[in-house]
Amino acid sequence: MTWTIAPEPYDSPVAAALWRAYYTEVSDRWYLLHENHRTDPAELEREIAACTGSELAPPGGQLLVGWYEGAPAGSAGVRLLDATTAELTRVFVHDGMRGRGGAPRLVTAAEDAARELGAKVMILDTRNDLVEARTLYTRLGYEETDRHNDDLYAEHWFRKNLD
Where is the N-acetyltransferase domain (predicted)? Predict the structure, then answer.
């Protein structure tokens, strides 16, 4: 039972399937928590089409896919915000693959990719209801900080020095 983490083009079919699974889960969680219904299918399609992931393409970014026993099971993206700051995004592991060590491996690989891009600091944001994510980031050495963006859905901001 092994994980392999490898770069993946942001516009590949594998990346598209993982983005759809990620976005569906986080969107449905928000709507179920706040409005007692899943994401409207038309909204889901609009958002998936609008968020291509092109910011995760080299030379300023990288999308990584976690493969578990040869099947795509998760992802993590990193993009440079400036010469020394990278953002961690799209960290996701399929529900059936959770608890098998993939998320920490994906985040660690994303940190390595950020270092290769020249970043000295990694930042990220997440929501209150994504408790598992907040727990993971804290366990991996991220510290909660003040707001660093205007994302409407962000409620927690984290930072980690990569030196």
Answer: 17-163
Give the chain's domain count. Answer: 1
Distances 149 to 66, 119, 146, 153 between C-alpha atoms, Å: 27, 18, 9, 10
State which amino acid sits at residue 160. Answer: K
Domain range for 54 is: 3-161
Each residue's pLDDT tens digit, 138-161: 999 999 999 888 887 888 999 999
The CATH number of the domain where 48 resides is what?
3.40.630.30
pTM for the predicted model, two decimal places: 0.91
Q: How many CB atoms lie within 10 A of CB 39?
A: 20
Instruction: Compute the distance between CA of residue 27 and CA of residue 20 in angstroms, rounded to an integer.
Output: 10
Report CA 78 to chain centroid distance, whole Å: 8
Report the candidate in 63, 65, 71 with the shortest Cα–Cα distance to residue 1.
71
**Do the Cβ atoms of 123 and 157 come closer than 8 Å?**
yes
* pLDDT tens digits along 12-47: 999 999 999 988 888 888 778 778 888 888 888 888
Token pair for 114? 């950020």
